[in-house]
Amino acid sequence: MRRGLLAMRNGLPDDDVRESARALAAHALELPELAGARTVAAYVSVGAEPGTGALLDALRARGARVLLPALLADNDLDWGEYTGPGSLTEVRHGSKMALLEPSGTRLGPDAVTGADAVLLPGLAVDTRGMRLGRGGGSYDRVLARLERAGARPRLVVLLYNTEVVARVPVEEHDRPVHAVVTPSGARRFA
């Protein structure tokens, strides 16, 4: 399922990826979960992932503190503050693709527990709100950390329209998201 979803993403024309990013930002900014968020943990999209750049800047313009991940050697995530495009640096992790990560002070893996909302990357979400990630486990660790801390941020995944599917495989540790945002709008889950 992951291979098929990635192949569809990688086949999207650049114009579609750019237009989708604008639509995603507009719909995401309408979500009450993000409108009232003082701190949002997010990520910088890479390749053909649904674009996050415009959304990150719009959240900052609203006065939200935006935290971005930095990948650690064990695939866990540290966090740093996003203060604009100039606060990012390209980091290559071994043979993996290069990621844009915050260049400032690292806040530690537990910094995410102070977020009011967490934007999660994914490949698909199903009608129950179950998210299919890329399989590296980084965000499974984030979700487990939030649960251990008793933190209850709103969980939102950003996807393309075709990535909202009937069912994704679920493992015991998987947790549902509260909402999905696609270029055509937002959907909440119970």
UniProtKB/TrEMBL annotation:
Keyword Nucleotide-binding carried by entry: yes
Pfam families registered for this protein in UniProt: 5-FTHF_cyc-lig
UniProt name for this protein: 5-formyltetrahydrofolate cyclo-ligase
Stretches assigned to coiled coil: none
Top-level enzyme category: ligase
Keywords: ATP-binding, Magnesium, Metal-binding, Nucleotide-binding
Transmembrane regions listed in the UniProt entry: none
Species the sequence originates in: Streptomyces graminearus
Signal peptide: none
Catalytic reaction annotation: (6S)-5-formyl-5,6,7,8-tetrahydrofolate + ATP = (6R)-5,10-methenyltetrahydrofolate + ADP + phosphate
